[in-house]
Amino acid sequence: MIGETIKIPQATSKRLPLYYRFLQNFANSGKKRVSSSELSEAMKIDAATIRRDFSHFGALGRKGYGYDVHYLVDFFRQALDQDEVTDVALIGVGSLGNAFLKYNFHKNHNTRIIIAFDPKGTHEGTEMSGIPVFHPDTIEDKIKELGIELVILSVPSRVAQEVTDKLATIGVKGILNFTPVRLTVPDSLRVHTIDLSVELQTLIYFIKNDVKDSHM
Prior knowledge:
By secondary structure, the protein is α/β, with parallel strands linked by helices. It contains eight helices and ten strands. Homodimer.
């Protein structure tokens, strides 16, 4: 898996799934090779950044030729473990959590939600969008039983840390946090927080400043 044998910057790591997606698009359109400038135009990422990102993995391309599209697709598929599906648990089936269940990820990615937890679930499991939803009392037993290491957290803020503390004791390695709470976790547990309100406020800030800059 990526990161175990190659030490790369975090910013580069976050762009790898994007590279994989756009290279797949090129491959599906029948393109055999692509330059960093063509990738730059398609992805709206500076060509120098793309070349620097790729350089972390050795000689992926040739000067004057560019990059072999199918080779890069295969390379990033293996780097991102796209051939191995990762099972995910969803905790919190409110409006956002319900949207996750309806979408599920395995249709387009290498992850799939196989179980969910919510107070409206039962100890026996209530099916929603084809996914069994259990009562939170069963989290520890079910996650241990299924060997799940990745969790999507979309619970009310008041219980976010409590749930996280429980997850930290049962071997969970990663949490995709959709609550506004900055979670406290041990070093063995990685948290990525997506605060939708902050992202929206940031977007509004940039839009307003873009308008100001255009009138200067």
